[in-house]
Structure formats: C-alpha cells, structure tokens
Amino acid sequence: SYVLTQPPSVSVAPGQTARITCGGNNIGTKSVHWYQQKPGQAPVLVVYDDSDRPSGIPERFSGSNSGNTATLTIIRVEAGDEADYYCQVWDNNSVVVFGGGTKLTVL
Amino acid sequence: QVQLQESGPGLVEASETLSLTCTVSGDSINNYYWSWIRQPPGKGLEWIGYIFYSGSTNYNPSLKSRVTISVDTSRSQFSLKMSSVTAADTAVYYCARVTLYSSAWVFDYWGQGTLVTVSS
Questions:
Q1: Which of A4, A9, A102, B114 is the right S-S partner for B6, CB 3.0 to 4.6 Å?
Q2: What gap in Å lies between CA B10 and CA B24, rounded to an integer?
C-alpha cells in the first residue's frame, strides 16, 4: 500500500514561513490535498490538487508537488495557523491515503 | 450550507458491532460520494471507506473484512457498521462528503465527529 510520510512537528515564529513536507514514492505523479485540523475540530481542506485553494482559504497557503515530495507552504504565519496538517492522495484502486500528520507550532 | 451529523452509541462492547449513521442536510445526498474517516485519540486520520449514492462502495483494505457502508437516500443518511471491534477501534469517527474540485476528488464537508469508545 502507498505510504505518505510527514514530519511529526514543525515550529515557526510568527511572520515567518512554514513548510510542511509530505513524502511518497513518485508523489509528483499524484494529486495531493492538504487538510488543517485544529484541536477538537474536524479537518478543513486548505489546498487541493497540489496547489489550488478552496474559496475562503487565505493566499498565504500554497502548495507544490514534484518528485517524491509535496510541500504545503504557509507564509506570514499567524498564531491562528497553529494546527495539525495532513496530506492526502488517492492511490491505485481508488483507495484514500492520509499522511501521519504534522503539528505546526507557532512560537 | 451542507451539514453532516454523526449519530450512534458512544460506547460499544469489545467483539460487538459498531453502528453509526450520518445525516446529510442542506443539499441532496444524490450524485455524491460519502465517506467515513476515523481518528484514534491523539493520532492521525484513517480512511475507512466510501459509498456512492447509488450504493457502490470501496473500503480501506485493512478494514474491509469488518466494514459495511450503506446508504438510505430517502432519509438522506448513510451508515457504517464495523464488526468484531476491539480497543484499537476506539476513535473519533467522522463522516464526510467527497466532491470533485476541478479534476480532484476531495473531502469538502465533514461532520463534527463522534467519539466511540470500545470497552472490554
């Protein structure tokens, strides 16, 4: 089965740029989606199809995907961005795969 | 605004069957895929499976032998049954809608989640 690997944690100071990676074999050939989950809440889609944003998501959130790594980038990080972030793809046979999640801490 | 609401017992005995229902409001259940996703306490998301409104399904291979997802379009509901549960099945269970964004299938609406504890 396909495996997505994320760092358990990323820390960044307010106003700086956070980069959260999602590794997978030839993930660049897949469409990657990113979800933000704050404590006690359901996940929210923040980036889809590698780099597109749903309506209502700030332009500070962006994504890229190439080779074996997809990246969620958050510029000008705010305290409100502190959350867990999950990458997700659809594998062969239409199976959904989530990464293990990354806790973003705003220092 | 689309809303999803999970319902069902919060406590299930080990070896029994977990049963949850998701009620959809604000939009038709037709023409969409609907999914169950769970999250053990303090851990990550795990996809359980999905169902199309017409009834076709697909399941996580690791859970397939124990899981059944069904849909009742007349009630705008879809349901999850998981048999032979153990403590490892203790989790927050979310229902979610699957939507096509451009050419990408994503989970765009989620329920608030419901905690199911398996007791031994």
A1: B114
A2: 20
